[in-house]
Amino acid sequence: MRTIISRLALLAMVLVGVSGCSQAPGPRPSSPSRSSADVLAALKAIPGVEDAQITGGPVGLPGQVEYGAGLALATDYHNDVAALLDYILGQLWSQSATKPTSTITVSIQLGTGSSARILELGDAGSALGLTNVGTRTFAVSPAQMKQHFGAWPGKVPTLPASLDSGSPATSATPAP
Amino acid sequence: MASGITVSGGTGGIGANLDDMRAQAKVLETMTVALLDRARSTALFAVDPDLLSSAVLSPVTAVVAEEKIVSATGKLVLFATEAGVSAVFLEGAVVAYESVDKALAELATLGTNAVTFVAGSLIIPAAIVGGTLVLSDVAASYIAGYSEELGDSLRDAVAKGAKNPLLLLSPPGFASLVASSFSAKDANANASAILGAQLAALKSLAADHAQQLNVLLGQNAGIVDFIARGAPGLLTGLVAPLYVILGPSTNAIMTALTGVPWPPTTYEQAVQALVGAANKNGALEDGKPIGEADLFTPPPILGQSVTVPQSISGLMNGSAQIDANDQLDGKDNDFARIRIVKIDGDPPHYIVQIPSTQSWDVKAGSTPNDLTSDTAAMAGRQTALASAVAAAMKKEGISSTDPVMLEGFSLGGITAGSMAADPNVHFNITHVVTAGAPIANFDIPHSVQIMSLEHNEDPVARLDGTANPDRSNWTTVHADAPLLASDNGVAPGIAGAHNADRYAKTAASASVVGNASVDAWQDSAKDFFTGNGTVTDYGAQRG
């Protein structure tokens, strides 16, 4: 009898899991809870950031969720891009509202409006030991994020000194 | 690269061949009439009075002429007969094929609904049996837990009795020893440990086999077609146990509960019944239409190129982009970003890109591209999203004659299909592109050139319960869902096949596969893919 019960329960669990219904994005108990608005505020507070947005959402069934951010930096931004990417990813991984299951994306431009130039992030990602798996933007898999930042939701990162204004210039190279 | 690409419909499909056969039959019919007319006039020439009177002057020549005329007339009649018979056979073959095809489809639907009715009628009894089995397992675990504690208490009592044998001679004394040793807390802990071990084993099993099952279900995603096609039977069967209790009044009760005649007999009625029942509980209410005044300019997309699509793949990338950029002030999935690409030319061409489902809440929220819109569209109702798209098209200044291509992934495709089929949408919709969208049941005019992409493992594309029509204007590309770099080599299966980025890859593969139907569709759409145009995004929220 227990075999039958086990099989029935297993089937139910697996079906729910496979259908992705168990992965529906939504409020998740976490202490302390951290919302997208919190992350957005932190990103906008980075020196040199002129605008920021949270991006992402379902990319298919409920179990496939992308989460990311788009930033516009000052045209003459000259701080460490790898450190900036690391900080942005850490911020995105720290929110507890939406569990990313598909990819975590970051896209950055220098300047705003029609003169904006898109910043290539592949090298900065490589410097962090992260492989870009995106097609439209720089994207990291949840597995890489877990390896890099620990289990989701991660700790809220503190702004590194290298991202304070006045830090030495490094590699803010626009995409060709 | 997507694998296993097959194409149905379009200019190379069966429907197109049937259209060709029907056109050939018409040509032969016309030819038959013309030949008979010619034969009739030739025969009249043979009995012409002038020809007969000339026979007196030259009898031999006249006989030869008469023979030739009669011979020609006979041949004309013979040709006409052959052409007429061919026309009848061709037309007959087309009618026979279509009749048999329709009859087989109806038979299959009937059989499917019979099976789903039986399956549906077993769901509640099976759930009761399953629940009873689970409860009995829980009870057995508690009995085992309490028995274990009782055994411990007995052993403890015997040990204590050995020190004081007089207590063992008195039954009340021994019972008090057992009772004093028995701990309900320990017994409950034993039972919890047993249940916990079972649950852990199940979790481990599920973790081990989830991906295998995911892939297996993806390989057999046709089951979704079966269930969707049999939805009326399934729902009726599900309610069947109620007939035992309530009798014939069940139909009236269910009609009142769902707002549609019960039992449902069509797919649309089945969906309407589900939506109607949810509406009674305040769920899946799609809300009021969204007008031009409700639209707003969304925030700019940061750090990404916003490009004019030049291919089907480019369309899919745009779809993914408008889906991802729909946050306002840090609120996730807060509005629908509708994209209109104006292609320069005279007349200008317009590509309208419609976003996919971004909220799975059963209660309508701010964004109109949500689950409520999904269900309303599949039930054949007007949706807030479709009204927002029409409002954006008006605001863009698209005239009723400008060629329009509607495009979307998932809900975006469903909305595109439903708008193309809606006679109240007064735009010149010439093209529709969908990916992972169940639109087979929409009655889209034959003048619209449709391109549908469907992954073999995608359950959403199968929710219409039937294959897309095989018509010369409707090309459907089927392919195995391709791997993405983020998959790390793990097959997407049924859970991951429905994905805009995968469809972008499939579209890129399909466009170069060298299929006649795909090529013809791309040729028909070339004026939309010139690359010269401007992109404008419109934001839409429910009021």
Q: How would you summarize the topology of this molecule?
A:
The complex is a heterodimer of chains A (176) and B (543).
Chain A lengths: L1 H18 L16 H9 L4 E10 L6 E9 L7 H14 L9 E7 L6 E2 L3 H6 L10 E3 L1 H8 L27
Parallel strand pairs in A: 2-3
Antiparallel strand pairs in A: 1-2, 3-4, 3-5
Helix pairs in contact in A: 2-3
Chain B lengths: L5 E4 L4 H33 L2 H9 L1 H105 L1 H5 L1 H11 L2 H36 L2 H8 L1 H16 L2 H10 L8 H14 L31 H13 L11 E8 L5 E6 L16 H8 L5 H13 L6 E7 L1 H11 L6 E8 L13 E7 L18 E6 L13 H4 L3 H12 L4 H9 L8 E8 L3
Parallel strand pairs in B: 3-4, 4-5, 5-6, 6-7
Antiparallel strand pairs in B: 1-7, 2-3, 2-8
Helix pairs in contact in B: 1-3, 2-3, 3-5, 3-6, 3-8, 11-16, 12-14
Describe this structure in words.
The complex is a heterodimer of chains A (176) and B (543). Chain A is an alpha+beta fold and 176 residues long. Chain A has one domain (2-163). Helix content of chain A is 31%, strand content 18%. Chain A contains five helices and five strands. Chain A has helices spanning 2-19, 36-44, 81-94, 122-127, 142-149, and strands spanning 49-58, 65-73, 104-110, 117-118, 138-140. In chain A, strands 1, 2, 3, 4 and 5 form a five-stranded mixed beta sheet that branches. In chain A, a hairpin with a 6-residue loop joins strand 3 (104-110) and strand 4 (117-118). In chain A, helix 2 (36-44) runs antiparallel to helix 3 (81-94). The longest helix of chain A has 18 residues, at 2-19. Chain A is globular. Chain A starts with a helix and ends in a 27-residue tail after the last helix. In chain A, 47% of the residues are buried. Residues 1-31 and 166-170 of chain A have low confidence and may be disordered. With 543 residues, chain B is an alpha/beta fold. Chain B folds into three domains: 14-116; 228-280, no CATH class; 292-540, no CATH class. Chain B is 58% helix and 10% strand. Chain B contains 17 helices and eight strands. Chain B has an eight-stranded mixed beta sheet, with helices on both faces. In chain B, a hairpin with a 5-residue loop joins strand 2 and strand 3 (349-354). In chain B, helix 1 (14-46) runs antiparallel to helix 3 and helix 3 (59-163) packs antiparallel against helix 6 (184-219). The longest helix of chain B is centred in the N-terminal third of the chain and has 105 residues, at 59-163. Chain B is elongated. Chain B starts with 5 loop residues before the first strand and ends with a strand. Classes of the chains: A alpha+beta (176), B alpha/beta (543). Chains A and B meet through helix 1, helix 2, strand 1, strand 2 and strand 3 of A and helix 3, helix 6, helix 11, helix 15 and helix 16 of B.
